[in-house]
């Protein structure tokens, strides 16, 4: 699927109304899943997801993964957007909170989030979702937006489902 996502073009940085964002994400899901069908390499999956979600979510100014490289440390992985933070300890920022608690972090105003790390001063809201494989945390998906309230709970649920179907194969034995 080298042509990417087949969706109506929307200018980067545009914050569509929530209903349109959710509809756009639902329209993209079968295309994303088809592009990933049969792929097992985690880096290839992350790179492809970062690219296709970047195309799907025009409100993002950063879209990508931070990989778990140590017990309590994340390192930047495949992404789209400007320079990301290279390393994030579990004790810092929205990504760290997601990794530490293994729960989705939906932050409508990053300036109100204690310990927020400003990798990009333009970011105003953030959605970070844990990524599990084999029953363990392997990464977090980080989505940044230059608008307050750039993501909704509905978008978070859709993306949680996509990540679970894509990565989580249950405990290995």
Largest sheet: 6 strands, antiparallel
Query: What is the mean predicted local confidence, pLDDT?
Result: 93
Unreliable residue stretches: none
Rg (C-alpha, Å): 15 Å
C-alpha end-to-end distance: 34 Å
Structural class assignment = alpha+beta
Percent of residues in beta strands = 15-25%
> H/E order of the elements?
HHEEEHEEEH
What's the total count of β strands? 6
Question: Which descriptors would you attach to this protein?
Answer:
25% strand, alpha+beta, 6 strands, 6-stranded antiparallel sheet, 4 helices, globular, 173 residues
Task: Give a written overview of the molecule.
The chain is α+β, with helices and mostly antiparallel strands. The chain is built from four helices and six strands; from the N terminus they run H-H-E-E-E-H-E-E-E-H. A six-stranded antiparallel sheet has the order 3-2-1-6-5-4, with helices on both faces. The protein is globular, with a radius of gyration of 15 Å. It starts with 17 loop residues before the first helix and ends in a 6-residue tail after the last helix. The model has no long low-confidence stretch (mean pLDDT 93).
